[in-house]
Predict the 3D structure of the following.
Amino acid sequence: MTSKLVRIMGILTFATGAALAAAGTAAAQTPQKNAPLTGTWTMGLIGDHVIPVALVLDQSGTALTGTFIFMGKDFPVSGDVTDGKVTLKGKGPAFGVRNAHDAGSAPQVADMIITGAVDADGALAGTLATKVGEGMGTIKWTAERLKERKLPETQAAPSDNVNVTGKWAMTIPEAQQLLDVELKQDGTRITGTATNDHLGTLTLDGTLTGGTLSFVASGQAMGQQVKIEFTGKYTKSGGFAGDAQSQMGALTWTAERVKK
């Protein structure tokens, strides 16, 4: 659906000694701030709730091209980065434009300008402006590089004793989403629901085999069909952790059983 996700680990540099502290900090900050922006970014639009977006960028010199990915749709963008200041233009969803969203329909497409800046740690933040006719809208955003995540160590042979029937609290950090999950297990078959204010109620259907929980969450949110494929491993803490593929791109997730 999009360019291949580029995953990059950040490098933290520590300086010792009071005399070297300032120089060490500057050395650590400069490469981060001036590092090429090529790669995949997890972007959050900050309104009444955080709207998850994937931003895939390719930098050549100061020129930027890329794709703004929302609810499974790709919106091409282009622009530049100069002295850490980013500008991207294209067509995209009409976030914040009054009357641009009709209930049960896809968001209206608007002229879109994304402006922001790179901070000392290499993260991005700024404002997204949209325009439809005379309607104008703005929304703040932040973005971080999609990073490789280490899964917690799994139990050696959890499959014989695990029954996941019950209530779970799921976290999807890239989308900044918390979901109330209720599962029912029948042999290896797993069914259930996942609910929150942003996504509404999604139906879950999957399997638990050898300590690996795999399921598909499907439903509708904001007038769009949602489908997220989850795979995770049972952990020593008694929860699950894993990865997910969604219309917004690759995600990670954890789930802990809700204690009675």
Q: What stands out?
A: Confidence is low (pLDDT under 50) at residues 1-31, 100-105, 153-159. Helices lie at 18-34. The first strand starts at residue 39 and ends at 46. Residues 166-257 form a domain with the Lipocalin fold (CATH 2.40.128.120).
